[in-house]
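for the writeup, i need someone to sanity check this before i put it in the appendix. the sequnce is what the collaborator sent (i think, or maybe the updated version? ugh). structure was predicted straight from it, no edits. if anything looks off just tell me and ill rerun, i have time this weekend
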Amino acid sequence: MNNYLLAFLIILPVLVFLVMIKWIKRKLFFHPHREMTCYPSEYNLEYKDIWISVGNERVHSWFIPSKFYKHSESKEKFIIFSHGNTGNISYRMFYVLLFHYLGYSSIFYDYRGYGMSDGTPSETNMKQDIRAVYDYLTKTKGVDPKNITIYGESIGTYPTVWLASRKDVECNVILHAGFSSIKNLFPYGLRWMVTEFNSEKYMKNNHNKTLIIHSEHDELIPYEHSQKMFELCPSKHKHHHSTHGFHAFPQLCRKYVNIIIKIIGKPYQPVQNMKTIYKYVEENS
């Protein structure tokens, strides 16, 4: 057997193994759904489909203005929502309605590969996607960054904290049910295979006003992850809010509502009275 054939027989299984690992990780990290299950208009909400270019591809988003947007545009509070790894933005109507009731304008966007967005999901694409949405608000629409809150849910906390760590980004940050690093969710002997989604290294450079929310009973991402992220955050204005319930179905309450208002800032005018909003949160979360 010549040396070239021997080298090929040694290298081939390694290459196959690496390709398989990459494929398995993609299946573990991302569970995108293309089909939209509902639209804001079904809840009598005004909204616009916004398409944002990222290279040669486009990210689809919903822009949902507050009821009083035309009267408060210069002082309007905006939320950029980055969802978890399953479904698409149409699965997040609880938050769409909550932010509307509170009187905030919001942008719900799908990562590439999700919903109506082009392309395929990846760690790099997620970072590019949230940056494109942020730039759309600040550069295209001229929104003051101080009036923007970036809200990340589950795996969506990763691009959120990455954006928050950029030196040219100044906004409020909410991290909901996030991880410190995905490798810390794997058994110790397998962690060497996972280098993606390391939120810890970015949190160390996040000096923005930050709220971390996590259920003490989260069955998917242990509560300790949020505690570690809170300790790593160098911001002088950071808060930690503990909830109950499961990862995908946290039990939220009026304290949750009050603390996100504290982080985002008071809206121009809520659509519903606070008693009704508290009831909505407690009955639907």
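The first strand starts at residue 31 and ends at 32. The chain is about 35% helix and 20% strand.
thx in advance!!
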